[in-house]
């Protein structure tokens, strides 16, 4: 069994159009910890917003290999089996970008973002850098970097990010009683969201509970027009709708009409 702590940087955040420009991971097998990192060639233009985050420029990629030709990709591909674990902070982007390069993951997946939401209820938020400081991960990062021969640790560099993935995983594993498979289960378990962070309620610091008390009819609309493609939101809205059997029945009837019209 091996653990792979993975991060990619990409040309942008469009899951359909954008592609990998850096792939990095740490491989932990027993007491051994090994780092892999490669810049990756692409023929796509990078968004300036993305360049402002990861600071990778087109000139840096001119001599790079295509992602699937890199040592990192081939090592990950070789280890792609159910006995191993794929760990990242927000699995969707990393997994989707690897799929674009022909890698369909067979590893068991652990999303440290989702696990943190389940296990770190006192977190200020669940951004990797916030967790890095709130839970003191930064106090251990240089020791890991030295062990791996990494000279600089900085945000939004894929190789640096995987160090924090590793340290966050260690914290979460402790919270899970040392049971790595519990983290797999938590990754697959929907989260009951607390605050509304979208639409007309964005930046109003309103909870779903408060909205249900003042305007429960909004939950019927959310259930049928937003939540269908957002599993955690669907789980949350369904939870509150079921508090009122009349509203839940109305939501289900509306869902049938929406699906029929699609």
Polypeptide structure, described:
This protein has 262 residues and is of the alpha/beta class. The protein has 2 domains: 3-187, Nucleotidyltransferase, domain 5, CATH 3.30.420; 199-261, no CATH class. It has helices at residues 48-54, 71-78, 91-100, 112-119, 128-134, 138-148, 158-175, 180-187, 208-214, 217-225, 231-241, 245-261, and strands spanning 3-10, 20-29, 32-39, 85-88, 108-111. Strands 3-2-1-4-5 form a 5-stranded mixed β-sheet, with helices on both faces. Helix 3 (91-100) links the parallel strand 4 (85-88) and strand 5 (108-111). Helix 10 (217-225) packs antiparallel against helix 11 (231-241). The longest helix is centred in the middle third of the chain and has 18 residues, at 158-175. The mean pLDDT is 94.
Name the features:
262 residues, 12 helices, five-stranded mixed β-sheet, alpha/beta, 5 strands
Topology (elements, then pairings):
Layout: E1 3-10, E2 20-29, E3 32-39, H1 48-54, H2 71-78, E4 85-88, H3 91-100, E5 108-111, H4 112-119, H5 128-134, H6 138-148, H7 158-175, H8 180-187, H9 208-214, H10 217-225, H11 231-241, H12 245-261
Parallel strand pairs: 1-4, 4-5
Antiparallel strand pairs: 1-2, 2-3
Helix pairs in contact: 4-7, 6-7, 10-11, 10-12
């Amino acid at each position: 069994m091996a653990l792979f702590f993975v991060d990619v940087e990409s040309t942008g955040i469009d899951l359909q159009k954008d592609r990998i420009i850096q792939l990095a991971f740490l491989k932990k097998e027993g007491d051994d910890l090994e780092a892999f990192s490669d810049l990756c060639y692409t023929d796509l233009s990078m968004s300036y917003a993305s360049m402002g985050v990861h600071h990778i420029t087109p000139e840096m990629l001119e001599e790079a290999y295509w992602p699937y030709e890199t040592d990192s990709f081939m090592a990950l591909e070789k280890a792609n089996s159910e006995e191993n674990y794929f760990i990242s902070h927000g699995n969707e982007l990393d997994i989707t970008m690897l799929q674009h390069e022909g890698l369909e993951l067979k590893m068991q997946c652990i999303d440290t973002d989702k696990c943190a939401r389940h296990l770190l209820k006192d977190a200020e938020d669940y951004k990797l850098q916030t967790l890095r400081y709130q839970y003191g991960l930064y106090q251990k990062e240089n020791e890991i970097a030295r062990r791996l021969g990494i000279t600089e640790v900085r945000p939004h560099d894929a190789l640096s990010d995987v160090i924090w993935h590793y340290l966050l995983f260690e914290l979460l594993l402790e919270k899970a009683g040392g049971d790595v498979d519990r983290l797999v289960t938590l990754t697959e378990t929907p989260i009951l969201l607390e605050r509304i962070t979208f639409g007309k309620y964005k930046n109003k610091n309103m909870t779903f509970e408060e909205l249900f008390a003042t305007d429960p009819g909004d939950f019927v609309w959310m259930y049928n027009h937003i939540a269908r493609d957002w599993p955690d939101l669907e789980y949350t809205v369904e939870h509150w709708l079921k508090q009122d059997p009349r509203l839940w029945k109305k939501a289900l009837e509306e869902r049938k009409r929406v699906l029929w019209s699609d």
